[in-house]
Amino acid sequence: MSWVYLVIAGIFEVVWATFMKLSDGFSKLGYTSLTIVGMLISFVCLAEATHRLPMSIAYPIWTGIGAIGSVLLGVWFFGDKLSPITWFFVALLLIGIIGIKMTSH
Questions:
Q1: Rounded distance between C-alpha atoms, residue 8 and residue 29, angstroms
Q2: CA nearest 42: which of 23, 61, 21?
Q3: Domain count, the chain
Q4: Residue 16 and residue 72: Cα distance in Å, rounded?
Q5: Could you give phi then psi for residue 53, rounded to 5 degrees?
Q6: Which parts pass through the membrane (predicted)?
Q7: Interval 46-95: pLDDT, tens
Q8: 97-101 contacts, C-beta under 8 A, 24 or more apart
Q9: What share of the chain is helix, strand, coil (3-state, %, to 5)?
Q10: How many other CB atoms are there within 10 angstroms of residue 88's CB atom?
């Protein structure tokens, strides 16, 4: 169940980062509120995951899910353009996350 909490925490990291962008510097109250709610859910789920998972495993996976998810949303929804070398490094992030998961006990 700890891994489920960790994945949810990572997803909500992407959620709050997206709403933070949409809040336009926290000037739009609705998106600012959703940013804060997303942060709370993300942090609570991360805290729950670290009850059983070591921080050295949970934190990099949480940030990795957030980083990769934010890159993908930026490209798909905000029209961000990435160079091929940037995509290569995003792929390395994904490989790192999978590697950390597969080698943790």
A1: 24
A2: 61
A3: 1
A4: 14
A5: -100, 145
A6: 5-23, 29-47, 59-79, 85-103
A7: 999 999 999 999 999 999 999 999 999 999 999 999 999 999 999 999 99
A8: 97/60, 97/61, 97/64, 97/65, 97/68, 100/57, 100/60, 100/61, 100/64, 101/3, 101/57, 101/61
A9: 80, 0, 20
A10: 10
The span from the CA of 65 to the CA of 94, in Å, is 8
Closest residue by Cα to residue 66 from 39, 27, 47: 39
Grade residue 104 by pLDDT with cuts at 50, 70 and 90.
confident
Q: What does the block give as tokens for 14?
A: 């992407």
Tokens of 32: 């600012």
Domain that holds residue 38: 2-103
Gap between the Cα atoms of 28 and 68, Å rounded: 26
Residue with tokens 């940030």: 63
| Two structure tokens written together for 61 | 């996976």
Does the predicted model carry a pTM greater than 0.85? yes
